[in-house]
Each structure stands twice: as C-alpha cells, then as structure tokens.
Amino acid sequence: MNANQRSPLPWRRMVQQVAVVTVPLLLVVVLRIPYQGLALRLWLVALGAIGLGLLTERALAGRAVHDVPGLRMPWGWWRRPRGERVRALEELEHAVDFSLGTAFDVHYRLRPHVRRIAAYRLGLRGVSLDRQPRRAAALLGPEAWDLARADRPEPEDRNARGLDLAHVTRVVEGLDAL
Questions:
Q1: pLDDT in tens, 24-37
Q2: Three-state DSSP class for 131?
C-alpha cells in the first residue's frame, strides 16, 4: 500500500477529534462566556496535539514493534530510595517551620522541643531548668530562656506572627553554646 492508498480512517478520526474540541469553543463564543481568549488558546493547543498525533501515527504506521528480551527495569527505578529519617528530627523541623508562622505554633510546637533540649543540655552541667531558673537563664541566654522558661505565658493572640528565622537561629545558638 503506497501513500495514496492509505486508509482514510486516521483522517476520519482526526475530523471527529477536531469536532469534539471545537464544540466547546463554539459554545463559549456563542454564549459569550468570559475567557474566550483562553478558550481559543486551548482549542489551538488541542488542534496541535491532534495534528501531532496524526503525524506520529503516519510516521510509525508501517513499523513493527518488537519486544526486546533483556534487562527489565523495575517500576520506579528512577526514584532514589529515601534514606531513613529520624522521626524526632522531622518533628523538630516541622516545629521550626510552623513557628515561623504563628505565635501559637511557637508556644505549642517549638517550645516543648526547646524545653526538652535545654533541660538535657543543662542537666549535663548539673543545672535544673525548673529548680534553678536564674542559673539556667544565665547559661541559656535571653532568647533561648524566653522559650524554655516554665512560666512563659500563652500568647494572647494565637494568630500573631511567629518568630523570624534570625530569632530561631539565636535560640539554637544559645542551646548549642551549652
């Protein structure tokens, strides 16, 4: 079968596809629905896809497809396996992320982590976070102490702005200095 004797089936299918994408465009234009420019652009993209499909079909029409025996790649081979993450570290990362948003998250998400870390680091020096607050405040520094102290009041406005990244960095540096 040469090029002139090919089946008209691909052309018929193309006409049907063009009709299917043209009907919504006509409805948008006739009913004067907003976004007519967007509808026209989408219609042109659809026409391009239909034309590309037709050209691809014509180019590959006479070629046989053979399944080549050999190495088979398992599904998902392109993905790198995720390394094991420490759950507590992920929780701390989320607490820091959220604390940049609201005061509620600073008090209820980040503060417990800061208190736990401060209590541990102070305990290595023989200082109790709750029983020796003056000594703990002197060792922690003002930013870290503000979050770690037991009598820190709840925020009046829970939706107030959280901490900025520089403040969180100073808190971490205060904890790290222990």
A1: 999 999 998 888 89
A2: coil
Task: Provide the token pair at 133.
Answer: 């607050």
Nearest to 100 by CA among 110, 113, 90: 110
Q: Where are the domains of the chain?
A: 7-59, 88-176
Tokens of 116: 């736990």
Main-chain phi, psi angles of 64, to 5 degrees: -85, 145
Closest among 94, 85, 93, 145 to 119, alpha carbons compared: 145
Q: Which amino acid is at 50?
A: I
**Contact (Cβ atoms closer than 8 angstroms) between residue 168 and residue 99:** yes
DSSP state of 161: B
In this prediction, the residues of the chain whose per-residue pLDDT falls under 70 are 1-8, 10, 67-83
Q: Which residues of 151-174 are buried (b: 16+ CB within 10 A; e: fewer)?
A: eeeebeeeeeebbeeebbebbeeb
Residue 106: count of CB within 10 angstroms of its CB: 26
